[in-house]
Fold this sequence. Notes:
Blueprint lengths: L4 E4 L6 E2 L5 H4 L9 E2 L7 E4 L7 H9 L7 H4 L1 H22 L5 H10 L1 H24 L5 H13 L13 H10 L5 H20 L12 H5 L2 H7 L9 H11 L3
Parallel strand pairs: 1-4, 2-3
Helix pairs in contact: 4-6, 6-9, 7-9, 9-12
Amino acid sequence: MxxxxxxxxxxxxxxxxxxxxxxxxxDRTNDALRVNGNELRCRVVGEGGNLGLSQRGRIEYALNxxxxxxxxxxxxxxxxxxxxxxxxxxxxxxxxxxxxxTLAERNHLxxxxxxxxxxxxxxxxxxxxxxxxxxQTRAAERFNEHVHVIRALTQLGELDPALEFLPDDEExxxxxxxxxxxxxxxxxxxxxxxxxxxxxxxxxxxVPEDPYLSQELERYxxxxxxxxxxxxxxxxxxxxxxxxxGNHQQPG
Length: 252
C-alpha cells in the first residue's frame, strides 16, 4: 500500500530481499505474509520489533528509495535507558551501603530524576540518528572512505562484511558506477562496529584519566546526582566505562 509509514511492532520477519528465499529467513509462520524489500511502497519503515525485516530486505528497500534505520537503531533508546538506570542504581546502592542514603531517599530520588533521564536518553539517541543522517547525506561522495573503514575493520578482525551483508567487491564496483554510496542500514552497521572499535581503544588508554575528557562522567548523570553526590562519582566502579562511552558517543 502507498502509505507514509509502516511501523512494525510484532514478532516475525515480514520483509526479505528478492534474492532471499523464505527458507533463508527461517520464519515459516509468516511465509504467506512476507514481501520483498523492492515491493514495499511505504515512504518510511519504523522497527519497533526485532527482526521484522532481514538486513538484505532493508538494504533492498533503501536502494529503492525507502527510508529506514535498523531494528537495533530504532530500539536503542530502551537499551540506553536500561544502561543509565543500572549505572544510577550502582552509585546509589553504594551510597546506601555506606549509610549516606536511605532506601526511602533513594526511591524518592529515582522518581525525581525520571524526566531528566528520559531527556538524556532522547538526546543521546537523537545524536546517534543525526550521525547516521550526516553519513547518509554524503554517502555517495564519501563512499571510498566508508569502504576503507570496512576493509580496515575487516583486516583487524573486528568485522565480517559477509556476515553483515555489506557490499562485496563486485557490488562496490557497481555502486561506484552508479554514484551510489552505502545505504542507511549499511551505515548503521559500519557506525556500530566503528563505535565498538573506538570504545575498546579508549578503555585501554589514559582517556578516562584526562581532566577534561573525564568530565563526561558528570554529564552522564542527571542534575540531582551531580548536585548532591558529585564527590562520589569518581568512586563509581564503572567510571572508566562511562567516560569512554560518553566520549565516543559525541557527534563528529
